[in-house]
From TrEMBL:
It catalyses: a CDP-1,2-diacyl-sn-glycerol + 1D-myo-inositol 3-phosphate = a 1,2-diacyl-sn-glycero-3-phospho-(1D-myo-inositol-3-phosphate) + CMP + H(+); 1,2-di-(9Z-octadecenoyl)-sn-glycero-3-cytidine-5'-diphosphate + 1D-myo-inositol 3-phosphate = 1,2-di-(9Z-octadecenoyl)-sn-glycero-3-phospho-(1D-myo-inositol-3-phosphate) + CMP + H(+). This is Phosphatidylinositol phosphate synthase. Contains a di-nuclear catalytic Mg(2+) center. The lineage of its organism: Bacteria, Bacillati, Actinomycetota, Actinomycetes, Micromonosporales. Coiled coil: none annotated. Its EC number is 2.7.8.-. Keywords: Cell membrane, Lipid biosynthesis, Lipid metabolism, Magnesium, Membrane, Metal-binding, Phospholipid biosynthesis, Phospholipid metabolism, Transferase, Transmembrane, Transmembrane helix. It comes from Micromonospora inaquosa. It comes from the Bacteria. A CDP-1,2-diacyl-sn-glycerol binds at residues 32-35, 73, 77, 83. Belongs to the CDP-alcohol phosphatidyltransferase class-I family. Pathway: Lipid metabolism; Phospholipid metabolism; phosphatidylinositol phosphate biosynthesis.
């Protein structure tokens, strides 16, 4: 059900961003430039606002600029497909943005003396990196890994909702969201490793252990 919702949401968003993508391409803007601009926007939202306790503003800015992930992909498709460097840059900038988001959250929670929340943020950061690494490594070995309940969009959505609610004085919301995210991220790592193991077993020559 989560996958169906995600696909439907992405299809709806694509119809919205396609005119913007066409306009940017006509203006000479490249998908790579959009990727970098989106990352800079996330850094501003996370470090400039979230880390200073402006959680609502920070979450809204991060969410807005995180949507460039869909915009640069649409632009790449319209201009003939993603290049190898474009795919590399996009993945690298995603890791930079995710690190800024969870680093900012951990920093702010530390200033509030909420060390349980800090621990949850650090688990989310580590597990989120593993979610992405397992997929990249599997694809590098010629296998697929498009499974899991906590992909990047879901992870940012969960922490964003928690940040907004905490900014609106629902105090435990961010910590609860982080522990929930930590749990589903770890589960997703397990899902992906199991999926890759099954593929590896099917690809393995008969008679090998």
């Amino acid at each position: 059900m989560a996958k169906i919702f995600q696909v439907s949401a992405r299809a709806g968003m694509t119809r919205v961003v396609e005119p913007i993508a066409r306009a940017l391409l006509r203006a000479g803007v490249t998908p790579n430039a959009v990727t970098v601009a989106g990352t800079v926007g996330v850094l501003v939202g996370a470090l400039g606002f979230g880390a200073r306790g402006h959680l609502v503003a920070g979450a809204l800015i991060v969410t807005l600029f995180a949507l460039t992930d869909l915009l640069d992909g649409t632009m790449a498709r319209m201009s003939g497909g993603s290049t190898r460097f474009g795919a590399f840059l996009d993945s690298s900038m995603d890791r930079v943005a995710d690190s800024a988001v969870f680093g900012a959250v951990a920093y702010w929670l530390a200033t509030q003396g909420n060390y349980s929340g800090v621990a949850a943020a650090l688990v989310c950061l580590a597990a989120g990196s593993l979610v992405s690494y397992v997929k990249a490594r599997a694809e590098g070995l010629g296998m697929t890994c498009n499974v899991g309940i906590a992909e990047r969009t879901e992870r940012l959505l969960i922490v964003g909702v928690g940040g907004i609610l905490t900014g609106l004085n629902v105090k435990p919301a961010l910590e609860i969201a982080l522990w929930l995210l930590a749990a589903v991220s770890i589960f997703t790592v397990g899902q992906r490793m199991t999926h890759v193991y099954r593929q590896a077993q099917q690809l393995q020559p008969d008679g090998q252990a």
